[in-house]
Amino acid sequence: MTERDEQNEDRADALFHALADRTRRDILRRVLAGEHSVSALAASYDMSFAAVQKHVAVLERAGLVSKRRVGREALASGELEAVRSVSSMLLELESVWRGRIARIDELLAESHPTKE
Amino acid sequence: MTERDEQNEDRADALFHALADRTRRDILRRVLAGEHSVSALAASYDMSFAAVQKHVAVLERAGLVSKRRVGREALASGELEAVRSVSSMLLELESVWRGRIARIDELLAESHPTKE
DNA sequence: TTGACATACAACCAGATGGTTGTATGTTTG
DNA sequence: CAAACATACAACCATCTGGTTGTATGTCAA
What we know:
The structure is a homodimer.
Chain A: H1 3-19, H2 22-33, E1 36-37, H3 38-42, H4 49-61, E2 65-70, E3 73-78, H5 80-97, H6 104-111
Antiparallel strand pairs in A: 1-3, 2-3
Helix pairs in contact in A: 1-4, 2-4, 5-6
Chain B binds a DNA duplex through helix 4.
């Protein structure tokens, strides 16, 4: 296990965990469709503002959502690239199924455009 | 919320939760590459047999892994279709981003070939 | 300036999760 | 048959999770 693999696994943990809650998936859908303030989001659910705020924080830590401050509001929007990075993890699994272990490096390099 | 949507959300909860653990993702990779008995899998990890067996059970309940009995062994293999169904959930999110809400029905019908 | 609004975060709690050990049951083998 | 092996599952435990309320801080409007 290299350190980068460890980081990838940490990232995968955070991403899948963030997606493993229906309220968070619903929030993500809304903010992918367009910016919403945290309180606008909170108004949609039958739970406290603080609970919704924590869900947004989980999505934000996973990189699925970003926020920008506008006056007293925090506007959240969905990060499409993070969603795509989850898709690429699943593609890696599919490639394992096909036995194409040797090509995983290329796949990672393509979906993970760091230097080198 | 229709009942079917509820069931889809339950399924999504189970799938993403199953994937939100690195040991389970690793097990899934192995069994996607080929059948393995539970004890063969357990030998690969620094935890008890029972712990690995529970991880396999979580994957199985989510539909990501199936088992067949052969003598005293239980051979586990990865279910590619379940992996693909997760991919299609992510595609739905991408389609929300593009604002194509109206086409989600087609997408679901395609990836979810039930009658009607 | 004062009050209402929007956010953030700490502290707390019940229940779920991921691990453990122990026990029971079925299967192969000597 | 008896012993070893493979699995399954219950009971237990520490930690994490998803919710709550309460408090603090900053921003807008009258």
